[in-house]
Specification:
The chain is mainly β and 76 residues long. 0% of the residues lie in helices and 46% in strands. The chain is built from no helices and 8 strands. The strands form 2 sheets. Strands 1-2-3-4 form a 4-stranded antiparallel β-sheet, with no helix packed on it. A 4-stranded antiparallel β-sheet has the order 5-6-7-8, with no helix packed on it. A hairpin with a 2-residue loop joins strand 1 and strand 2. The radius of gyration is 11 Å and the shape is globular.
Length: 76
């Protein structure tokens, strides 16, 4: 299970203490900024870079993002 992926020039991760938050870093992980902080998607457990989208497995199902994790849509 991937808790962190590299997408372009960014590292994207699930926050280690608050699993509902997605964060990103542009300086090799020295500092992290919040990208998605809503609990409506559930707790993230896995991230996968699927080339055109990011897949996120959560406690509420499979979600995908086409904008580097800024927003998520439920995969039916």
């Amino acid at each position: 299970m991937a808790q962190m992926i590299v997408k372009g020039k960014e590292m994207i991760r699930i926050n280690p203490t608050t699993k509902t938050k997605i964060e990103y870093s542009t300086n090799d992980g020295r500092s992290w900024m919040a990208r998605s902080t809503t609990a409506s998607y559930g707790d993230f457990s896995d991230l996968t870079d699927n080339s055109k989208e990011i897949l996120g497995m959560t406690s509420k199902g499979l979600y995908y993002s086409t904008n580097e994790g800024r927003s998520w849509m439920k995969r039916s």
